[in-house]
Amino acid sequence: MKHIQTLDTRDMAKSAVNGGCGECQTSCQSACKTSCGIANQACENSEE
Amino acid sequence: MIHQYKLNGSNIVLDVYSGSIHLTDDLAYDAIAYLDEGKSREEAAALLKEAYVGKCPPGESAPVAEQDIADTFSDIDELTAAGKLFTEDVYSDKAFDLKQRTTVIKALCLLVAHTCNLNCSYCFAAQGKFQGQQGLMSFETGKRALDFLVEHSGMRRNLEVDFFGGEPLVNFEVCKELVAYARSIEKEKNKNFRFTLTTNGIGITDEVIDWANRECHNVVLSLDGRKEVNDRFRKDLAGNGSYDRIVPKFQEFVRRRCGQGYYMRGTFSHYNTDFTNDIFHMADDLGFAELSMEPVVASPDDPCALTREDLPVLFEQYEILARDMLRRRQEGKPITFYHYMMDLSHGPCIYKRIAGCGSGTEYLAVTAQGDLYPCHQFVNDPEYRMGDIWNGVTRTDIRDEFKLCNVYARPDCKDCWARLYCSGGCAANALHATGSILGTYEYGCELFRKRMECAIWLKAAERT
Q1: Distance CA B81, CA B87 (A)
Q2: pLDDT (tens digit, 9 = 90+) per residue, B156-177?
Q3: How far is A36 from chain B (nearest CA, A)?
Q4: What is the count of residue pairs from A and B with beta carbons less than 8 Å apart?
């Protein structure tokens, strides 16, 4: 493509089919627990 | 839903529901915007022709031709067909399924000490006293909490336990005993405990360092940055600043951590809206590379509370930080800023992005007395006491309320492009700001959106 460069991102629609295993780290959206947020989490399922 | 923005010379287009991120030239940026506004292909082409054809884009020697417009629409068509542009929201039904789901508990926040050896005035937990509860968690109570977690964790193998307070190191002996107990049962129970310690640093000793570096998956070390900034709030009970006592301990702690996870975690307020200087102080003067700075959450009438007038200053600060982090990476000395960490290719699935933090369902806080709350932020409020570790969750109505508290249940999030990056935000902040856990803390949302724009720009810049 000449005008658009697309970054490699996880396909959300596909994750609706094979995601949801629940092994991911519990996140915290408040400011006090820096150890765990959501946007920056990694998926724990290596097969995803 | 499309969100597009320009930052540091980059044109960035997010396709919210597929999670796709695109970098475009000006022509494609405007073409996508016109189509997203609902203009027809012909209307968009006419506007683009008028604006671009025959003119040289900045940095280019050849003028834009009509063929470029056709090529741009071709690119857009290709991405649309591939499900990476103009995708529809197909997840709302899954959000409502969440109420039906069977949840397990996979994380506990143990408030092992309802007391603290510092007296930071901005502390949400009132130095661990919360709503008048004081005291230390006994080993027996903590042990029962770990058993409770195992009993309610189903098939989930990784279990997270945070030592929190107050200041958890005030009750270090019990922390040690609880880890030893957890290690003694995890093989038999087929569980893997991951412990986190959040500490103000005062109680750090050689023994603490050895223990934490052996046993804790992550440690969060509280430091607000420059000495005068840290010592404004982070004082001991006699009113003396803590900086000189904690910084050498934190440095030794991190030195001996040998690459394991840690965060230097600070708070900025109205008094230090130039907070990047605190981040750079911790990085350049103190040698820390894993950094986080969080906006204070305070009552609007508190002098330290962030104001509307602070917002443009803070936005600029986040941009400064992103540019500086790119520079450091290019120079081979990168630092990590917690909010700019994003795993684009292997990040959370859509279920996680909808459900959010799991407070009140997958994650609970346990007080020193063994009472259960949706999370550590709710321990101030007796109305949210859900039960205790001996009798379990008896207020199932609270659990059900939190089970449905997801990004689709929040009306304010309906039109927000960042909804699948924040999952609707923090229920406690929403409650305090609006009176409902289904509300939103809009000031925090504005900062969050800016951080996400900077984080995505940084990821894109690192890859190109």
Answers
A1: 9
A2: 999 999 999 889 999 999 999 9
A3: 9
A4: 206
Say if residues B108 and B151 touch (Cβ distance below 8 Å). no
Say whether pLDDT at B457 is over 90: yes
Q: Tell me the C-alpha distance between B398 and B404, whole Å.
A: 10
Question: Percent of chain B having pLDDT more than 70?
Answer: 97
Mutation site for B-interface testing, chosen from A11, A18, A35 by largest number of B Cβ within 10 Å: A35
On whether the CB atoms of residues B417 and B372 are closer than 8 A, the answer is no
Nearest Cβ partner for B356 among A11, A23, A29: A29
Cα separation, A31 vs A47, whole angstroms: 31
Structure confidence at residue A47 (pLDDT)? 59
Which residue's entry shows tokens 């009750």?
B171
Mutation to test the A interface, candidates B52, B86, B352, most A Cβ within 10 Å? B352
Q: Are strands B20-24 and B192-199 parallel, antiparallel or unpaired?
A: unpaired
| Surface-to-core class of residue B259, CB atoms within 10 Å of its CB (0-12 exposed, 13-18 middle, 19+ buried) | exposed
Q: What's the gap in Å between the CA of B138 and the closest CA on chain A? A: 23
Dihedral (CA of B321, B326, B329, B333) sign: negative
State the Cα–Cα distance between residues B28 and B51, nearest whole angstrom. 12
Compare all CA atoms of chain A with the CA of B20 and give the residue at the minimum distance. A9
Q: How far apart are the first and last CA of chain B?
A: 25
pLDDT in tens, B190-201: 999 999 999 999
Helix/strand/coil for B196: strand
Residue from the list A16, A31, A42 with its beta carbon closest to the beta carbon of B346: A42
Residue, of B440 and A18, whose pLDDT is higher: B440
State whether residue B444 is helix, strand or coil.
Answer: helix
- Among A10, A27, A34, select the one facing B357 at the smallest CB separation: A27
Per the CB < 8 Å rule, is A41 touching B78?
A: no
Coil vs helix vs strand at B65: coil
At position B181, the amino acid (one-letter code) is: Y
Nearest CA-CA partner of A37 in B89, B455, B458: B455
pLDDT band at A45 (very low <50, low <70, confident <90, very high): confident
Mutate to test the interface with A, among B48, B346, B403 (most CBs of A within 10 A): B346
List the alpha helices (DSSP H) in B152-274.
Answer: 172-189, 206-215, 227-233, 243-255
Backbone angles phi, psi at A21, to 5 degrees: -70, -25
Q: Which of A6, A24, A30 sits opposite B428 (nearest CB)?
A: A30
